[in-house]
C-alpha cells in the first residue's frame, strides 16, 4: 500500500516531502495568527480599561452636577422667600425695622 501511494504521488507531481512542508507552513501560519490575535486582544483590553475609567469619571461628574443642581434649586426657593429679603437687607444694606434698636460696639 505504501508503494502505491508513493507512485501516485510521483504520478501527480507531488513529492514525498511536500506534505510535511505544508504541515509546517500551516503550523507557522497558525502560530502567527495566535500572536497577532493575542496582541490585538491585549490592545482591546487596554482600550476597554481606559473606557471604563472614563465612564467612572463621567459618572462621578454627573453625580456632582446633579448635587449642584439640587443645591441651586434649594437656593432658588430660598431666594424667593421673605427671610432671604430680610437677610440681604440686614447684611448688605444695613437696614433695620423701625422699632429695633441698633447697638454699635467700639
Describe the fold and architecture.
The protein has 106 residues and is mainly α. It has one domain. 78% of the residues lie in helices and 0% in strands. The protein has 3 helices and no strands. The chain has helices at residues 2-12, 18-79, 82-91. The longest helix is centred in the middle third of the chain and has 62 residues, at 18-79. The radius of gyration is 42 Å and the shape is rod-shaped. The mean pLDDT is 85.
Q: Can you lay out the helices and strands and say which pair or pack?
A:
Blueprint lengths: L1 H11 L5 H62 L2 H10 L15
Oligomer: single chain
**Residue share in helix:** over 70%
**Largest pleated sheet:** none
Strand fraction:
under 5%
SS elements, strand count: 0
SS element count, helices = 3
Shape: rod-shaped
Number of domains: 1
**Uncertain spans:** none
Structural class estimated from helices and strands: mainly alpha
H/E order of the elements? HHH
N-C termini distance: 123 Å
Could you report the average pLDDT, rounded to the nearest whole number?
85
Q: From the alpha carbons, calculate the radius of gyration and give it in angstroms.
A: 42 Å
Amino acid at each position: 500500500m505504501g508503494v502505491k501511494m508513493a507512485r501516485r504521488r510521483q504520478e501527480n507531481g507531488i513529492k514525498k516531502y511536500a506534505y510535511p512542508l505544508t504541515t509546517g507552513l500551516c503550523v507557522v501560519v497558525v502560530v502567527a495568527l495566535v500572536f497577532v490575535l493575542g496582541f490585538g486582544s491585549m490592545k482591546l483590553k487596554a482600550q476597554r480599561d481606559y473606557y471604563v475609567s472614563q465612564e467612572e469619571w463621567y459618572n462621578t461628574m454627573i453625580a456632582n452636577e446633579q448635587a449642584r443642581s439640587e443645591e441651586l434649586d434649594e437656593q432658588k426657593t430660598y431666594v424667593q422667600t421673605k427671610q432671604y429679603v430680610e437677610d440681604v437687607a440686614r447684611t448688605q444694606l444695613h437696614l433695620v425695622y423701625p422699632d429695633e434698636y441698633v447697638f454699635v460696639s467700639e
